[in-house]
Amino acid sequence: MTDKIKDLLTTKVISRRSFLKSSVVSGIALLGLTGCVNEEEEISVEVITEEPSITKEETHTKTIVPREKGTISHQVCPRNCGDTCSILSEVKDGIITHISGEPTNPITAGSLCAKMNHYLSWVYHADRILYPMKRVGTKGKGNFEQITWDEALDIIVAKTKQSIDKYGPETVWKYYFSGTLGFVHNKGLPHAFFNKLGASDFDATVCSATGVAAIPYTFGKDRGVEPEEFANTKLYVSWGANEAATCVHVVKFIKQCKENGGKVIVINPIRTGVATFANEFMQIEPGTDAALALGVINYLIENNLQDQSFIDKYTIGFKELKTTAKEYTLDKTSAITGISVKQIEKFAKMYGEIKPSIIKIGVGMQRNSNGGSIVRAITLLPVVVGTVGVAANSGYMYSNSIYSAPNPNLIQGKELVENPNRRKINMNELGKALTGGLDTTKELPITTLMVFNSNPMVITQHGKLVREGLEREDLFTVVAEIFRTDTADYADILLPATTFFECEDINQNYSGLYLRHNEPAIEPLGECKSNGEIFNAIAKKMGYTEHIFDLTTVEAIKATMQTETLISQGITYDVLKEKHWVKIHIDIPFGDKEFPTPSGKIELYSEKLKEAGFHPVAEYVPTAESKDGSPDLFKKYPLTLMTPHTKNLINSQMYNIPQIKELMGEPVLYIHRDDALERGIMDGDKINVLNDRGTIVLTAKLTSTITKKGTVLSYSCPWPKLVEGGKSVNEITSDRLSDMAGGSTYHTNLVEVTK
Ligand SMILES: Nc1nc2c(c(=O)[nH]1)N[C@H]1C(S)=C(S)[C@@H](COP(=O)(O)OP(=O)(O)OC[C@H]3O[C@@H](n4cnc5c(=O)[nH]c(N)nc54)[C@H](O)[C@@H]3O)O[C@H]1N2
Ligand SMILES: Nc1nc2c(c(=O)[nH]1)N[C@H]1C(S)=C(S)[C@@H](COP(=O)(O)OP(=O)(O)OC[C@H]3O[C@@H](n4cnc5c(=O)[nH]c(N)nc54)[C@H](O)[C@@H]3O)O[C@H]1N2
Ligand code: SF4
Ligand SMILES: [Mo]
Q: Cα 335 to chain center, whole Å?
């Protein structure tokens, strides 16, 4: 590293103490602390409202002029965000001097989101891990000393081999998720090492697994519309999504829908940014959406608003659906959902009459104990009105991961797996898995944990158990990280990871169809390595000689691109590198009317669902922690805590950026004024939020619009070590699994709040 770079690496993270000190001087920071921020501001759309958009002609052709006389370099924001923006960085003397959104891409359209405008403070942050390090002192305290890569690899290999000799290879477990979503450094190369080793497998269920499992019961597979089509539809329904915070670049398309005379509906327990300009905001009781879907279906059928010819031609089970939905009268639906009969009727009528329409099924909503049942019920709606497979601007959208054009499986060393039946552990059960709370790990403990691309101490539920697990003296933990996160503090060995500005990769957004190339803008800082390089280095030290462990990143990228889709569309590595991003072309979703269900039709009635223990059509099941689902618990803890994502962070990332932390202030709990009044709580009070899993300290933020009485809200995921009390929201979230695919249930929590 040059001296200039060393000088740059000075943006030290503010600890809570220094933050408090500085806020005494800074009035703005104090505002955040006391929570006296205007309600509208809190839920506003986070990018500039007049977001630039580009015309079709400008796509790929707008001229880019560097601001200074630096070199322009092209990156992709690889965070777990459906926008996957294209980034331009300017580099001078080996240093990035400026970043901006790429102006020629229709999604990015020249702007990054507010948080990622701080990417330079992130890359050149004083707390970056620049060298391999070894723990000295107690686990969790975060004391380390620098060692060489060779020493680090020797220790890792010796410890891993020791564990394997005693317990076999399944005693090793990888824990990874979405720090970067690059095809090579997330989904690809690192897995080859674990496959060769025979480590316990990892069930990646934290994010969207529940919905991914639910949708095929209806359609056989998931094929959603593209986000750009939101602009071209007549009725856009945002159902359990928070676009203005979690995929900001699609908000312009939703606004265009309205500007073109279309209608926008929001169904959410929380007043979101899109709700501020929607035609209808239906503030539903959390976890009751299946009842709403069935109530609307009943209304449609009773008023003959269904598309009978579509139903007759492409579906089975309409008779059963009609009978099932009949139970959900307007009155009953209103009683369950807390939405007025009038508003349900209004929405149902609009949904029956206005076409084309799109329902955006949010991924947040399925993080409920009944999330699968909810998603299943909602998927029946576009079928009843016949909007699926008829046009590009019609139907529904969930995650669209199915359109992934490259195939990371091609570089995961699948052929090296010797035991296809090796143990698989659900990531939602990390705490239990480490503390003997699962049958499988009681018999055969995890003794080596290798973490990359993830911050489990912060993002995983039931934090107390996770902490107890990571504190185990007999657990050897390796963490490959960019920063000294809460998780990193528990590592025995810390390995320095590059940011995407320092390594090559390719990315495709999970909401749309843009494949993008990320070129390195600068040399790796310090001794940082990419994830692919890290795990290949460990593999080699283990003595593995297979060719895959010699692959360079470019070779790995090329290998993932050997797919029919890319080959048939002439998209090679060289083309992608030259154009920086390309659009993948696909037919309209379900345009071929092929539904790979057991019957080959859309299944309104599903035997498969029945076999899996669910209602074969759909039903409303109360969530596991709610008034109806757990009456006794409800008496003790009468408030439903929701913990969705904030516009200011990306999961746990960016919380250590001083500007962001200052902007957010101490984490708050939004609580309805009536609930606060009943408890003698004032705006800005320090409060305890508790349940049987633990207690956290938050600052009360009184509201009369963001949440309804009975629902409280605290955004995920601030770092425990940077907040008051050292515990953050996942300390008290539940590690209960959802009804389908063992997904997460971050929004199914009952709590009480005290002063
Ligand atoms: N700024 C920012 N952007 C992000 C992320 C981030 O952390 N910050 N994370 C990224 C990731 S990993 C993901 S998965 C996506 C998630 O993106 P979203 O799908 O938008 O997920 P969430 O914000 O968790 O939840 C969306 C909405 O679901 C609502 N919801 C929860 N329960 C219910 C319910 O029972 N019924 C209804 N109708 N609504 C409900 C919440 O109130 C919330 O507004 O965002 C990605 N983008
Ligand atoms: N309460 C609550 N908790 C939640 C959620 C919620 O809605 N509510 N949402 C959940 C969801 S949907 C998700 S997807 C998960 C996300 O869980 P994670 O994917 O674990 O979340 P991140 O905060 O993005 O953490 C990623 C870590 O990877 C590191 N990193 C970034 N790039 C790289 C790299 O190139 N190499 C390496 N080695 N490390 C890198 C970052 O510094 C960061 O510490 O969180 C879940 N947690
Ligand atoms: S987090 Fe999302 S919106 Fe922000 S720059 Fe990255 S991809 Fe774009
Ligand atoms: Mo996620």
A: 32
What pLDDT shows up at residue 43? 56
User: Phi/psi zone of residue 321: left (φ > 0), alpha (ψ -120 to 50 degrees), beta?
Assistant: alpha
Quote the mean pLDDT of the chain: 93
Closest by Cα among 702, 628, 636 to 671: 702
Q: How far is the CA of 643 from the centre of ligand 1 (A)?
A: 9
pLDDT digit string (tens) for 261-307?
999 999 999 999 999 999 999 999 999 999 999 999 999 999 999 99
Residue 243 alpha carbon, nearest atom of ligand 1: 20
Q: Is 52 helix (H, G, I), strand (E, B) or coil?
A: coil
| Centroid of chain to Cα 357 | 25
Domains detected in the chain: 3-123 (2.20.25.90), 133-204+405-503+528-550 (3.40.50.740), 211-398+591-611 (3.40.228.10), 631-754 (2.40.40.20)
Helices (H), 481-572: 531-542, 553-560, 564-568
Q: Which of 601, 731, 621, 733 is nearest to 217 (CA)?
A: 601
Cα of 472 vs its chain's centroid, Å: 29
With beta carbons less than 8 A apart as the criterion, state whether 696 and 659 touch: no
Chain segment 223-258, per-residue pLDDT in tens: 999 999 999 999 999 999 999 999 999 999 999 999
Give me 482's structure tokens: 């960019």
CA–CA distance, 419 with 472 (Å, rounded to integer): 28
The residue whose CA has the least distance to atom 6 of ligand 2 is: 644
Q: What is the pLDDT of residue 3?
A: 81
Residue 649 CA to ligand 2 centre (angstroms): 10
Q: How many residues can be counted in the chain?
A: 755
Tell me which residue of 331, 347, 348 sits closest to 281, measured CA to CA: 347
Tell me if 596 sits within 8 A of 220, measured CB to CB.
Answer: yes
Residue 77, ligand 3, Cβ within 6 A: yes
